[in-house]
Amino acid sequence: MVAKKKAVRKASRKHTAKKASKKHSHRKHAKKAAKKHTHRKHAKKAAKKSTRRKTAKKATRRKSTRRKAAKKTTAKKATRRKSTRRKSARKAAIKKEMGEVVSKLKAAIAAR
To answer: What is the structure's pLDDT at 18?
Structure first.
């Protein structure tokens, strides 16, 4: 009887030990899976961040080029204005000179 009780106790102990080990392995696996999951999540987030950064960089580059282009166009406009002013001034000077020459000629003709 005593031996039987002992055997039963031993068996139950063995069973609980087995159960515990199974539970432990399950927990271990769950932990690993969770780690993998978090790793994947972080990787995804990092990828998103990097793409966002890339797009932002592109946008800033575009902005700067646009700004540069705008500056160039304004400069071109200014030079055009300057040249037009010069041209008109030249034309006016020529007109004035021609007027003087004509008046001199007229005076000479009248004096003759």
So the answer is: 86
